[in-house]
Design brief:
Largest interface: A-B, 47 and 65 residues
Strand content of chain A: 5-15%
Structural class of chain B: mainly alpha
Oligomer: heterodimer
Shape of chain A: elongated
Shape of chain B: globular
Number of helices of chain B: 12
Helix content of chain A: 55-70%
Radius of gyration of chain A: 20 Å
Order of helices and strands of chain B: HHHHHHHHHHHH
Structural class of chain A: mainly alpha
Chain lengths: ~100, ~400
Amino acid sequence: MTDNLGFAVEAAWKVLLSGLVIGAGLPALFAVGVRSLAWGTGGTAEVAVGARPHPAGRVLATACFAVVLAGIGLGLSIIVAAGQGKVVSFDHVYPTFVDEPK
Amino acid sequence: MTEATLILVLVIGTALVFDFTNGFHDTGNAMATSIATGALRPKVAVALSAVLNLVGAFLSVEVALTVTNAVVKVQDSSGAPRSDLTADHGSALLLIILAGLVGGVLWNLLTWLVGLPSSSSHALFGGLIGATIAGLGTGGVNWNGDGSQLDGVLGKVILPGVVSPVIAGVVAAVGTWFVFRITAGVAERFTENGFRWGQIGSASLVSLAHGANDAQKTMGVITLALIAAGHWSDTGAVPFWVKLACALAIAIGTYIGGWRIIRTLGKGLVEISSPQGMAAESSSAAVILVSSHFGFALSTTHVATGSILGSGVGKPGAEVRWRIAVRMVLAWLITLPAAGSAGALMWWVGDLLGAYAGPLVVFLALVGLAAYIFVRSQRQPVHPGNVNDEWTGTPGRSTRQEAHA
């Protein structure tokens, strides 16, 4: 019984930490993208009405959305890998599919 | 029809019914938030979720036949049924599976009637545990695993059930808080449109992951039954028709939509706004996929409910209806014993009445009770037209109030 408790605590920590980075970090980044888009547009879109448009805002927004899309791609790859009995490995920095560890 | 064929056909039929209830019970996990915030029209949301569940089911190329091994000892580690249970065309094993499935379906239907999300995998496991205790004694249950990894009823069902809603809730609360802080003051046309896409994207990932995870549980159970009955021998593969039937059953169930549960999740727990919807579904998607990556078995329902609660906690000034949350937790706590009791009762009835009448009576009991629950639900139907109405109480509760009046 204590074995299971130990394994559960170990797994729960990993899930919580990665969950926070991906599950709370990506929506926050998405929100930064939305805010940058408004900043880039200027005028009535901004917090201070009548602000000038900032082209850098659009660049920043695109960068944020690109990272979010990469996150979605990672999620898709985990689903596809699991369906083939494999896991996504980060040993080579970029994600690769490897056999599930026994 | 011989006795052996009869029970096999009933097991397959009941398994597909379970898969169907698994679909409509869980539509809300992915789509309740998008429906409540208006990001998607109700019918569009369930159609999208159904298609993604179908695709997800077919993504399960390698289906583990050892799904029951987590809780009961009826198979060896390769997925083949225990040899002492396969005599007489596997009728001993098939009766356990049939009774367990009926217990799971009944619990799914009952919780749907009162509009409470509860885990379909816990209902299935509960039913199987009950039927196994009745058929083989408590020694047939894998309570604790062998200590080498997270396993058994405790490690694969109870501990993840306690931990996962808390994790999802924390992640969603943190995400919601950040999103509100970051976008404070930005014009609504930017936030609403942005978060609409954020919600649709994250809810789609949850749907796809659901199809990939849950449909293969039924595929594994049906294939186990086929092996026990001697109609299939390959423990490394699933017959194509089984895969197709399970994928269709879960997709059709999802499309039918468990509107009573969608309403509780989308309107009952928290009044959800678009940023909360996006944070909640992102948290669900991330926790489900990260857990799958680390091999931590958990229930989509527990994660989705925890995320929606968390999105209420994380929004400054939001109201969370804790009484409904407490009712849900109570339902989760009694899922295993309730589905288990039903499974055990069904096994005793089936065993008492013998080879021909037993399985037939068990199946007819399921049909009768399901019909009764459906008729009860029609007293106060929830459908796409009223799913987003102002919250006045869970369906079960207001029915009782009417009865008193």
